[in-house]
């Protein structure tokens, strides 16, 4: 009886298990059939049927996820992207989902949605998982690259992606071109060329390959190879218009000479003359801008205006160029600056209903040095302040400061020699000056160091306007408590100025050959010309003495962050480390840009979105120098904030327009940002550190640099006050060598304290020494 009972029990259990298994199988089969029905409908484009069949997803995991994929495709196809994203995010959050991912297309949709919602880290994580899960998906690999570059150091990201490209996924050639473009965006010409290779890919992407390779060769300053590539590219296309347009523009941008000896402005003119054949409007507009600029700098104003009018008619404007600005350049060239500032006009600034204590702060006459403080003019009862001002190449600026110290209005006006120009001031709610906490130099560190920030195209007149508005407290503190000067940068071009700083020994050239080469260098340094007709004589000139190699030959450790490229390649690779005792290396972890924070975006709310990538470069520059200053691993850090130059040229017309701007505008916001970042950098320094802020030149018009450059220094032993006259910028290298007690024969034009004039070069100083 017991045995029979046990047998029956066992049979019942077996039948029950079989039933359970059958039920499960049935559910799986039903789920499979449901998923297949959904996917067949989606494949056939019967979106309503697919959505109806998938209103409730199957229970079994595999069928559930397959049906979800197909339902999501139907949702996307009927314009319900958000519902698709919501469904997929819900499934990914379920523990039972495991390591499942939607198909590659839908995974990319999710990545883009997270990115667009500002969830960059989550988007990058999903993109990385998706690219590993679907190694043949080019779009996911591209998304992964883009997002990780916003969060991680570029070297590691690009190296990882490059290794995976070697496995040869189906879209590897296209993805390789995209990653090469990102290398180029990081100013890594060597990485770009390595990824592109020597041989062109399939014909359909050959133009992209050639354009990227041309840009990388130009960035490395290799014009002969660039010309050979352009000739090969022209032969492929059977039409030289596009390759030669790239060639002319790249020579102009990178200040390179044409190996065939043709003037760059002539090459640019050929490009615009056959513009209809180019079929690339953006490139053609760039060629117009470069041509107008080149002709303006060369003093060929009538030709520049004619080409501007032609380009402006075609493009409904011509980039950042303004006709009024070109006319001012023409007037400056025809009259000369000395004669221009003799022509005066009257300006009347009218303030309705003035209040007690109202004061108008007015920029000084153009005949005064550009660092001259604003003049204070109390507003009389009738509310009108009149002044006479020379024309100059900058407008007359005014700032209304109220009795309580707040700023209620500000703007600019251009004097007119034929009539009095009247400005009607609209009073705004007062804005209090920005305040800094009381500053006390931090304790001394373990030895003196120097941090140098070169604001490319930084101009004293922007600084003084910001100071009059009470918005630049850091630069104001440096000017009031440190040593300031108006440096003379002649000729006023970045390439020459940076060479004079990085190669101070080059300024000791004497004799006829040296004079001829320097005259040629003036032409080579022109932003829009970039050709030195005397370059073949360079081999007979004395060798240049390098600042970083000289200081790094002893116990000091230096880092070059000058963003050298093209014709500036000789001043050293960006991130090059020299010292101690001559050791050389390359700084790791440098990023070319980083996304702006929400606070930074609020500060720069006047920035044109097209300009934000340049501001992102500035943000990355200051991130890097702050980190290095805080680590105290270097004795000398020299950074050029290169992106400021393009931003200044692009924003100059708007910044000098005759209007009440109240400090609104890209360049005014940018100077506020620079002031804040320099203040944060100063907080990283110790009490025996020297901070130097200077520019390589100023700006005269949107197309011309000014020779007056900015200089501010603060640190131990730096004598406060203004350096008399206009010392030459070429003496900055000697000043730094003297600060570290390294004897040189470099030209001395600039001193950190007056007593050096009598005592000569200071002796080497220890941690507590003074410059």
Model description:
- The structure is a single chain.
- The chain has 771 residues and is α/β, with parallel strands linked by helices.
- The chain is 48% helix and 12% strand.
- The chain contains 29 helices and 18 strands.
- The strands form 4 sheets. The protein has a 9-stranded mixed beta sheet with strand order 12-11-10-13-8-14-17-9-18. A 4-stranded antiparallel beta sheet has the order 3-2-5-6, with no helix packed on it. Strands 4-1-7 form a 3-stranded mixed beta sheet, with no helix packed on it.
- Helix 3 (61-77) packs antiparallel against helix 4 (81-93) and helix 15 (281-297) runs antiparallel to helix 16.
Could you list some keywords that capture this structure?
771 residues, alpha/beta, 9-stranded mixed beta sheet, 29 helices, 18 strands, 48% helix
Short description:
This protein has 771 residues and is of the alpha/beta class. 48% of the residues lie in helices and 12% in strands.
Q: Structural class, from secondary structure content?
A: alpha/beta
Question: How much helix is in the residues?
Answer: 40-55%
Estimate the mean pLDDT confidence: 81
pLDDT under 50 segments (min length 5)?
15-27, 507-544, 756-771
> Which strand order do you get reading across the main beta sheet?
12-11-10-13-8-14-17-9-18
Q: What is the count of β-strands? A: 18
Indicate the overall shape: globular
């Amino acid at each position: 009886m017991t045995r029979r009972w046990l047998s029956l029990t066992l049979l019942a259990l077996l039948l029950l298990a079989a039933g359970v298994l059958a039920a499960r199988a049935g559910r799986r089969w039903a789920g499979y059939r449901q998923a297949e029905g959904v996917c067949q409908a989606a494949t056939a484009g019967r979106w309503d049927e697919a959505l109806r069949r998938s209103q409730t997803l199957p229970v079994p995991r595999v069928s559930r996820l397959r049906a979800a994929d197909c339902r999501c495709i139907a949702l996307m196809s009927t314009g319900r992207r958000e519902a698709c994203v919501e469904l997929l995010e819900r499934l990914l959050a379920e523990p039972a989902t495991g390591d499942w991912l939607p198909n590659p297309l839908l995974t990319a949709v999710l990545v883009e949605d997270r990115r667009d919602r500002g969830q960059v880290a989550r988007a990058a994580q999903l993109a990385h998982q998706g690219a590993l899960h679907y190694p043949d998906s080019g779009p996911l690999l591209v998304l992964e690259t883009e997002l990780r570059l916003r969060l991680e150091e570029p070297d590691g990201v690009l190296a990882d992606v490059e290794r995976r490209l070697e496995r040869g996924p189906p879209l590897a050639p296209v993805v390789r071109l995209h990653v090469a473009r990102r290398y180029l965006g990081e100013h890594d010409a060597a990485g770009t060329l390595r990824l592109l290779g020597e041989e062109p890919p399939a014909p359909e992407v050959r133009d992209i390959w050639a354009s990227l390779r041309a840009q990388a060769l130009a960035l490395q300053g290799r014009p002969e190879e660039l010309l050979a590539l352009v000739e090969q590219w022209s032969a492929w296309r059977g039409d030289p218009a596009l390759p030669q347009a790239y060639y002319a523009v790249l020579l102009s941008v990178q200040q390179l000479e044409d190996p065939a000896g043709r003037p760059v402005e002539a090459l640019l003119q050929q490009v615009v003359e056959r513009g209809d054949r180019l079929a690339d409007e953006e490139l053609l507009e760039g060629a117009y801008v470069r041509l107008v600029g080149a002709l303006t700098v060369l003093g060929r104003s009538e030709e520049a205006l004619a080409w501007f009018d032609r380009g402006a008619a075609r493009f409904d404007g011509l980039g950042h160029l303004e006709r009024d600005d070109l006319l001012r350049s023409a007037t400056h060239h025809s009259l000369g600056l000395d004669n221009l500032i003799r022509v005066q006009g009257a300006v009347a600034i009218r303030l309705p209903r003035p209040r007690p204590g109202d004061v108008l702060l007015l920029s000084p006459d153009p005949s005064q040095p550009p660092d001259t403080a604003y003049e204070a003019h109390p507003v009389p009862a009738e509310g009108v302040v009149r002044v006479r001002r020379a024309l100059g190449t900058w407008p007359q600026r005014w700032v209304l400061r109220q009795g309580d110290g707040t700023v209620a209005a500000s703007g600019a006006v251009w004097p007119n020699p034929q009539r009095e120009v009247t400005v009607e001031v609209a009073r705004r709610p007062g804005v209090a000056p920005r305040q800094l906490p009381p500053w006390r130099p931090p304790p001394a560190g373990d030895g003196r160091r120097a941090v140098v920030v070169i604001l490319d195209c930084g101009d004293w007149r922007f600084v003084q306007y910001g100071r009059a508005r009470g918005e630049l407290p850091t630069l104001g503190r440096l000017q009031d408590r440190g040593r300031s000067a108006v440096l003379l940068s002649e000729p006023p071009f970045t390439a020459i100025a940076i060479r004079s700083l990085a190669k101070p020994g080059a300024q000791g050239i004497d004799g006829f050959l040296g004079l001829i080469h320097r005259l040629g260098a003036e032409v080579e340094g022109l932003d829009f010309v970039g050709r030195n007709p005397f370059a073949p004589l360079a081999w007979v000139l004395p060798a240049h003495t390098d600042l970083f190699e000289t200081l790094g030959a002893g116990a000091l450790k230096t880092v070059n962050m000058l963003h050298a490229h093209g014709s500036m390649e000789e001043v050293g690779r960006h991130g090059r480390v020299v010292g101690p005792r001559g050791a050389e290396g390359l700084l790791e972890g440098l990023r070319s840009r980083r996304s702006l924070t929400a606070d930074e975006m609020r500060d720069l709310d006047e920035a044109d979105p097209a300009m934000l990538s340049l501001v992102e470069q500035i943000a990355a520059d200051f991130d890097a120098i702050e980190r290095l200053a805080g680590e105290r691993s270097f004795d000398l850090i020299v950074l050029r904030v290169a992106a400021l130059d393009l931003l200044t040229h692009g924003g100059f017309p708007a910044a000098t327009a005759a209007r009440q701007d109240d400090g609104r505008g890209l360049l005014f916001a940018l100077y506020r940002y620079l002031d804040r970042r320099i203040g944060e950098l100063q907080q990283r320094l110790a009490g025996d550190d020297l901070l130097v802020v200077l520019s390589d030149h100023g700006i005269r018009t949107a197309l011309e640099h000014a020779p007056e450059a900015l200089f501010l220094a603060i640190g131990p032993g730096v004598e406060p006050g203004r350096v008399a006259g206009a010392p030459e910028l070429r003496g900055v290298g000697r000043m730094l060598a003297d600060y570290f007690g390294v004897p040189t024969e470099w030209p001395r034009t600039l001193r950190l304290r007056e007593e050096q004039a009598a005592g000569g070069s200071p002796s080497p100083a220890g941690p507590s020494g003074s410059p």
